[in-house]
Amino acid sequence: MIKYETHLGEITISQNYFTKLVGEAVSSCYGVVSMVPKGVQRLRPKFLKKKYSDTGIRVYGNDHSLTIDLHIRVIYGMNINAISRSIVNKVSYVVEDATGIKVDHVRVHVDGLTEE
Q1: Per the CATH hierarchy, to which homologous superfamily does domain 2-114 belong?
Q2: Bridge partners, residue 67, by sequence
Q3: Per residue in 32-65, pLDDT tens?
Q4: Any idea where the domains of the chain sit in the sequence?
Q5: CB-side exposure of 44: number of CA atoms within 13 Å?
Q6: pTM, rounded to two decimals
Q7: What is the pLDDT of residue 44?
Q8: CA triplet 69, 100, 11: central angle to 5 degrees?
């Protein structure tokens, strides 16, 4: 959760908002098949039978800058470098446009390939 003060009052942006915003931006990029769960995220579906919007996404930082880690699966045969650049540009633009917070780093980890 990120909180900061403006001349209008206090603004609070939840982690859930960031993960949904980033997840939608990544999903709309051509070549991305799915997000890949990491760490504790792998265990949740085994115990709780529901889908989570934060799968494969980690957003951290403060009201001045953000770092975003993404774990994705892409279509086999696609140019991974082009897909990654597209994701970095799209995620940075969408987050900065929606929140006004600068995105310092978007780290794209390609964890798998899938045939179309």
Answers
A1: Cation efflux protein, cytoplasmic domain (3.30.70.1350)
A2: 60, 105
A3: 998 888 754 444 445 455 454 568 899 988 888 9
A4: 2-114
A5: 13
A6: 0.81
A7: 46
A8: 100
